[in-house]
Amino acid sequence: MFDEHDHEHDHGQGLAHTLAHTKQPDVEDLPATEAQLLETSVRELLLEKGVFQGSDLRQTLETIDSWTPALGARLVARAWIDPAFKARLLSDAQAAARELGIDPGSTHLVVLENTPERHNLVVCTLCSCYPRRILGLPPDWYKSRAYRSRAVREPRAVLAEFGTVLPDGVAVHVHDSTADLRYLVLPVRPVGTDAMSESELAALVTRDSMIGVALPRGSSSP
Amino acid sequence: MISRFAPGDRVAVRRSESPGHIRTPYYVRGRVGVVERICGPFPNPEELAFGRNGQPARPLYRIRFRQTAVWPNYVGPPDDSIEVEIYEHWLEPA
Fold first, then answer.
1. What pTM did the predictor assign?
2. Nearest Cβ partner of B81 from A126, A153, A173?
3. Which ipTM value was assigned to this complex?
């Protein structure tokens, strides 16, 4: 049965029922921003002039949406079990990604190693630079002015709000992606994971642990 | 490309107020840090932003600052740091 209203009910049920029927606005119902109008105009012109086809655009969007933090997690898990790979990841992250069949694109990627003495945190204060090929699209909070301004000025308070409390003696190193480099945090491998397989380890590596606002699943709190 | 600064060099970020598309955050202008690494030559974003080709390319550096040197009221230990990518024309010896 596809029509949810194909049943007997009383329409006099009061406020709760009225709310249930409140129409959610469609995207097109909201006023278009200047950026949306610009995108629509440019896209329609490019399609009209045959610079690319609708199918090219669809395919590109599908590719962008296929980038997920699972790619970064594979890099981290391999680095945890293979010290030689870790060394290559830290010295040339793009080449190391290609070794695992991951296309890192042409943007310079720098991997920042967390240690028991050093915790790295990534932010882009000027916009929303992010290693999209490795982590997918950035979360909304990463693009917010609150995160962008506070992560540099009071990183420890921001970490605490994310539930990340570091033991005493751990220095916090913030990295502001202001220009041409993109950053990926290599978290510390949680203790007690010696028996885990590479794919089990990858499942511990969350997006937020590779931005540096959290620790991997299974990390012990101080 | 010859880079004016080497890793370990102390540098100051210029206090310029240039208009345009500037990738040097205000919070480090006038601050002194240390060259962490030379990232290599990159097209100048201040030119690229206006549809030009960004040439000549500019050396880009990662500069490490002590947080306590950037924020007067920083809450945290003195070895907390912040690293920012800065183009050479925004740096001078310190």
1. 0.89
2. A173
3. 0.96
Q: Report domain extents, chain A.
A: 68-211
**Residues B48-76 as b or e (16 or more Cβ within 10 Å = b):** eeeeeeeeeebbbbbbbbbbbebbeebeb
Chain A nearest C-alpha distance from B79 (Å): 6
Does residue A61 belong to the interface with chain B, where contact is any CB pair within 8 Å? no
**Cis preceding linkage at B56, omega within 30:** yes
* Token reading at B30: 């006038």
Q: Do A174 and B79 make contact, defined as CB atoms within 8 angstroms?
A: no
Burial class (CB in 10 A: 0-12, 13-18, 19+), A152: buried
For residue A22, the one-letter residue type is: T
Tell me the pLDDT tens digit for each residue of B5-52: 999 999 999 999 989 999 999 999 999 999 999 999 999 999 999 999
Fold type of domain A68-211: Nitrile Hydratase; Chain A (3.90.330)
In this prediction, residue A13 carries a pLDDT of 55
Q: What is the pLDDT of residues A68-97, one digit of tens each?
A: 999 999 999 999 999 999 999 999 999 999
Judged by CB atoms closer than 8 Å, whether chains meet at A179 and B60 is answered as: yes
Q: Which residues of A are catalytic?
A: 124, 127-129
Q: For residue A105, what pLDDT band results from cuts at 50, 70 and 90?
A: very high
Residue A82's identity, in one-letter code, is D
**pLDDT value, residue A2:** 45
CATH for B10-93, among 2.30.30.50, 3.30.1490.20, 3.40.50.300, 3.30.1330.30?
Answer: 2.30.30.50
CB B62 within 8 A of CB A181: yes
Q: How far apart are CA A35 and CA A132, in angstroms?
A: 21
Q: Could you tell me which of A193, A198, A201 has the C-alpha nearest to residue A220?
A: A193
The residue of chain A with its CA nearest to that of B79 is A171
Contacts of A108 in chain B (CB under 8 A): 39-40
